[in-house]
From TrEMBL:
SMART domains: HTH_ARAC. It comes from the Bacteria. Residues 174-272 form the HTH araC/xylS-type domain. Gene3D superfamilies: Homeodomain-like. This is AraC-like DNA-binding protein.
Length: 273
């Protein structure tokens, strides 16, 4: 599967009375409604928008979306997909936007906005660029995203509270990925990774599952056995020479894990290569 671009902006158009989709968002999404109606169902809640409104939906949401075309017309929208890293980077570069009223931050994974005059002009600029070139350069897309986030941050401080909560969550996910990627080749435990992320074991496991879609123990087992297979394929090391490198204290535990993933022992695997 082709990896998604960090940001992509495009127009969407459909004809028909109603279109329903089940979606798992892999990236954050701004959805600007131009024509028709849109209803999103998620986690027991519902949010609807009409032209003049738009949504910001956080990555990782599992939702059902219903698009309803205008009478005798189309359903039209402009979509901005962008990854967690861009959202986290924005708040890192704009720390002044985080110095707002204190108190508990209300976390919401789907936010609704109304378009004011500036936002209407912003959307019109996107329509113009998409209509004339059919695509927008990567640099221009990034500029338009920052323009939008900066405007919302400065003019809708109440919503920024919720945006900040979403950003903190994505920043935590980034820390988990950084810790895992930096230590994937080292014999670290799940407890070690939780410590490196400066969080409790239960919190680390929850964030890990949100980021990778599985438990850290299962993910690490799979990755370590992939590395074990690569080492065994080289043929210059025996199972008894690599188990400690992979984070195992004894050979028997390594053999058991290898067989669990590959269905045969490390020795049998090496003989069958």
């Amino acid at each position: 599967m082709k990896q998604a671009e960090p940001i992509s902006i495009f127009s969407y158009q459909a004809e028909g009375a109603s279109i329903k989709n089940r979606i798992t968002l892999q990236q954050n999404l701004f959805s600007f409604l131009l024509e028709g109606e849109k209803t999103v169902y998620y986690a027991g809640s519902t949010v609807s928008i009409i032209p003049g409104e738009f949504l910001l939906m956080a990555a990782g949401n599992c939702l059902m979306s219903e698009k309803i075309a205008a009478d005798g017309g189309y359903y039209r929208s402009i979509l901005i997909f962008f990854d967690n890293q861009l959202l986290a980077d924005f708040f890192i570069r704009q720390p002044n936007l985080l110095h707002i009223q204190s108190g508990a931050i209300q976390e919401e994974s789907i936010l609704r906005f109304k378009q004011d005059a500036f936002l209407q002009n912003f959307i019109s600029s996107l329509e113009h660029m998409l209509a004339n070139s059919q695509s927008i350069s990567a640099n221009m897309q990034l500029l338009k995203l920052h323009e939008l986030l900066l405007y919302l941050g400065e003019n809708y401080p109440g919503q920024l509270q919720k945006l900040r909560a979403v950003s903190h969550e994505t920043a935590d996910d980034i820390i988990v990925r950084q810790a895992v990627n930096a230590n994937i080749d080292h014999p670290v435990s799940v407890e070690d990774l939780a410590f490196l992320c400066n969080t409790s074991l239960s919190t680390f496991k929850r964030r890990f599952a949100r980021t990778y879609g599985t438990s850290p123990s299962k993910w690490l087992l799979k990755k370590r056995m992939e590395k074990a297979a690569q080492l065994l394929k080289r043929g210059d090391q025996k199972p008894s020479e690599i188990y400690y490198e992979l984070g195992y204290e004894n050979l028997s535990s390594f053999i058991q894990s290898f067989k669990q993933v590959h269905g045969i022992t490390p020795k049998q695997y090496q003989l069958n290569i």
